[in-house]
């Protein structure tokens, strides 16, 4: 046990020293849900195949950095124990275990964060409590137990320590195939006995991991070429005695900036605020100009109603940012199209509010 704790402490120390390398400006924290099922083996007094039993687990977690996550885990179903009386007598019981796990993503830790990495291995350690119940089969064999052992009746609660290794295999942006092996260290009450030795249950599980709000990195901004300037027509010289030089003021060129948003969001990121600052500067330098703000949403995700709402919020939040910068709201025209119009071919580019100054 001390060796396992020392190994986990070393991993946490290495992760703390390496996390700065893993951090990326395009990472956004997100929630995830894991549903798993598989088999469990209670280390006991007979052939391991006799003690195999079904297992299931559900977890709700939060990935708060590229490396570290925490989750609430509930697992359980069935355990098995045995007593050797010449031939093994196997009995079943039930249990539910709840725990809090701290998780470390090994790929992000050692190779840096990557949104679309195919395989993400992770390790975890946790603490919790184990509630065992339904040991009627053990009590039916009570007379066969050695004299130094005795059974509890009804139910038993024991502290539990957990550790394990898992893999998330990416299927899409939001879904991954999950494979996990873990073990729980529990006192001897777990398999119906009241003793002093620790019990171990090893589990092999498979299932799915669902990510919520996991944002893609923002694509590089699309540079829209400005239209060619109108040709400047030279004025005819006036019949004056002395010719004066003619200074021609260049016509104002329309300015377009695409303010990009993360999927399902309408808050303005620092990189997009710089584009808004350019729009504000153009409006201040040209007091007779107006700006038209058109909001859009990605048709590939979300419902039409949700996308209409997103495009409206994106248009309004950009307009408010321009007003806050000192521009009269009468110079701002807002419109929003939901997903009825997608001006760009790439879905990510249609999560946008387009600012056109002219």
Chain-wise SSE layout:
Elements lengths: L1 H21 L7 E13 L9 E12 L4 E18 L1 E19 H6 L7 E15 L2 H5 L14 E16 L4 E12 L12 E14 L42 E6 L9 H16 L5 E5 L8 H21 L7 E5 L15 E6 L1
Parallel strand pairs: 10-11
Antiparallel strand pairs: 1-2, 1-8, 2-3, 3-4, 4-5, 5-6, 6-7, 7-8, 9-12, 10-12
What fold name stands as the CATH topology of the largest domain?
Porin
Secondary structure category = alpha+beta
- Strand count: 12
CATH architecture of the largest domain: Beta Barrel
Please tell me what the overall shape is.
Answer: rod-shaped
Domain count: 2
- Span of the ends, CA to CA: 71 Å
Give the class-level CATH name of the largest domain.
Mainly Beta
Alpha carbon gyration radius: 32 Å
**Which series of helices and strands comes N to C?**
HEEEEHEHEEEEHEHEE
- The residue-averaged pLDDT reads 83
Largest sheet: 8 strands, antiparallel, barrel
Uncertain spans: 15-23
Helix content: 10-25%
Please list the strands of the largest sheet in the order they lie side by side: 1-2-3-4-5-6-7-8
Number of separate helices: 5
Taken as a percent bin, the fraction of beta residues is 35-45%
